[in-house]
Amino acid sequence: MNTKIENKLTPVRIIAFVFVALWLIVAMFPFIWTLWGSFKVQADFFSKADWANAIFGFHTEKQTGNFFTIDGYYGSWIEEEFWRAVINTSIVVFFTVLISLTFGTLGGYALARSTYRYAFWILMAGLIFRAMPHMTLVSGYLQPFFAWNVWGILPTTIIVLVAINQPFTLWMLHSFFLNIPKDLDESAMCDGCNRFQAFRYVIIPIMWPGVITTGLFSFLLAYNDFTVTSMLLSDENETMIPAIASFLGTVQEEGKVMYAVAAVVSATAPLFFLVMFFQRQIVSGLTAGAVKG
Amino acid sequence: MKHSTFLLFILPSLSVMFLFIAIPIVSVFIQSLHIEHKQVIIVSENCDPFGCETTTSVDTEASAKLKEKAPLGKFNGFKTYSNRMHFAFDEIGEAWNSSDSFIVFVKKIYNFPLYRALSFTLTYTFVVTPFVLFLGFLVALGVNNLPKLLKGPTIFASLLPMIVTPLVGSLILFWMVDGDGVIGATLQKLFNDNSLSLKASPVLTWVMLMVYGIWHLMPFSFIVFYAGLQTVPHETIEAATIDGASKFQRTRHVVIPHLMPLAIFITLILLMDNFRVFEPIISFRAEAHATSISWLIWNHLRESAYPLYNAAGATSMITIFCVGILLLPVLIRTWRDFNEKNKG
User: Fold this and answer.
1) Chain B residues with CB inside 8 Å of A72's CB?
2) A119 is a domain residue
3) Quick check: A1 pLDDT over 70?
4) Lower CB density within 10 Å: C or N end of chain A?
5) What residue in A sits closest to B234 (Cα-Cα)?
6) Using one digit for the tens of pLDDT, what is the confidence trace for B114-164?
């Protein structure tokens, strides 16, 4: 009987349908439009006369002989050497995720198992650190980094991103470890393990779901960062996002906006697949802190 | 857990946070109290039979020595905070005396960079946050009513605007609202005005940035609310239905109170994230009409050949102070909860 009520079309449900459909268009259209347009020439993608040009590629066919072109991608990846930025991003993201998860699991586990008051204070400090706008921190880094001559290289950026990431990682893994029953590692300790062995043989084998979810968010932070990477990396060590930003200035004047469009699509594509494969984990991660309070 | 084991476990995490978050905050504060050394100038007088001539030149050696002796620069106290770039106390006093009406006075204040940035950042934060909460809740209700088959793809599509890099996401929108882009050109045709440009007008720039902010953060509140909706107790809803509550009444009196703690959590996260708004201003190239505090710091560090560390430091300290005020209610609440838990 219940299902019958749920499948009935009431006016409220129709309004809900329409509203969700509208939101989906607003959410998706910009991506589809830009993805499609990135295979066209500028005269089509920025067509004042008729937006249909961007769909059918009127000018693209005139200029290149086909309604479909990869000139933008060739220009950005090869001519402007966007591939360098892609490699740099991979290095930065890989090591940031690896190090933040290592530090985060150790710290989060300790915070979840400690009953002392200072554990609470560390979590509170984490919350305050999480709220610091990254730009304020960056303005504190520059002078010492110049003085020690470590500005502009990838390891510096990686360790800074790890630090900025730490408060969030700690909070998330802390609440994840709280859900693993205490008895599990405590019984191991009764059997003669010390704390490290209990962690190694009991906790590590079962912690992967939480670690993967947290890792996704560390990945996103490192991948999406513009503030830190644009201020702390020299030109040759640039990652994708600051590379796109510096593209804009030069490329716009030369009438090569399509290079930037292609680079933007290239930078979005991995995120698209990430959401596709890890949708469940992302949703559970977003709600983990919230639903449990 | 023993103190020593706890310390060993937390040490790596704590030390990176200490080194790269706590110390930089202190160093920013020290930076803000100092000012760059002036170049040491030598004035020399050259006399020859035709008369004397004074020449000035920079004594690089002495300048370098000065810098080595005090690398932070000259101590300046809180003068950086009160100068034209920041609180501009003197200038405001002057503006107050010379303006004949309050509106003129406000307009004059708006010309100082810090007040300009603050007014945009605060407006952005307090407009985007409620919109995101409200619209996210509506979409969550809507999706909850969808047949099961459609829910997965809907969530997938909804996540994209949030997951995508802010700089890239705002660029995508920027190209669309460009005068030659699809939305920009359509609007021009619609209003039959070829010079209509969302970028040229200050008001439209603000609106555009806020629309981007809502688009970017709505998925977050939607997902959290949607997860919350799954935990609404069935019995209460049924009881309310039997008592004759309409759908609207059920939402108003059962669902919304149940979701209140979530709304507080979302508000907190949104306030923190919105307050650091920065990337869209770069992407939209909106700095002529809208600047945020983070953008201001970035500009201090980038604008001239020498980064203005003292100005960046002072602006950063003011930002941290504002964040502190924003967080204060939450911190007090958590502190109370914690104490109550320990008592009980």
Assistant:
1) none
2) yes
3) no
4) N
5) A2
6) 999 999 999 999 999 999 999 999 999 999 888 888 888 898 999 999 999
| Together in a domain, A34 and A147 | no
Residues A125, A62 within the same domain: no
Shared-domain flag, residues A165 and A248: yes
User: Per residue in B25-38, is it b (16+ CB within 10 Å) or e — as a string?
Assistant: bebbeebbbbbebe
pLDDT in tens, A81-137: 899 999 999 999 999 999 999 999 999 999 998 888 888 889 888 888 888 899 999
In sequence order, what DSSP letters do the residues of B64-108 get, joined into one string? HHHHHH-TT-EE-TTHHHHSTTTT-HHHHHHHHHH-SSHHHHHHH
Q: Which secondary structure element, helix H or strand E, spans residue A176, and what is its range? A: helix A154-178
As a whole number of angstroms, the distance between CA B31 and CA A203 comes to 44
Q: Is the dihedral of CA B102, B108, B114, B117 positive or negative?
A: positive
Residue A51 belongs to what domain range? 24-69
Same domain, A41 and A102: no
CB contact under 8 A, B176 and A291: no
Across the interface, do A271 and B165 touch by the CB < 8 Å criterion? yes
Contact A64/A174 with Cβ under 8 angstroms? no
Flag whether A75 is in a domain: no
CATH number at residue A204: 1.10.3720.10
pLDDT digits over A144-171, tens only? Answer: 898 899 988 999 999 999 999 999 999 8
A198 shares its domain with A251: yes
Q: Output DSSP code: residue B180.
A: T
Cα–chain center distance at A192: 42
What average pLDDT does this structure show over A209-220?
Answer: 92
Residues of chain B found within 8 Å of residue A19, distances taken between Cβ atoms: 138-139, 142
Q: What is the CA radius of gyration of chain A?
A: 24
State the smallest CA–CA distance between residue B107 and chain A in angstroms.
Answer: 28
CA B150, CA B282: separation in Å to the nearest integer?
36
Quick one: tokens of B48? 């020859």
Three-class DSSP category at B153: helix
Adjacent-strand bridge partners of B55:
B44
- Domains of chain B by range and CATH? 82-111 (no CATH), 112-337 (1.10.3720.10)
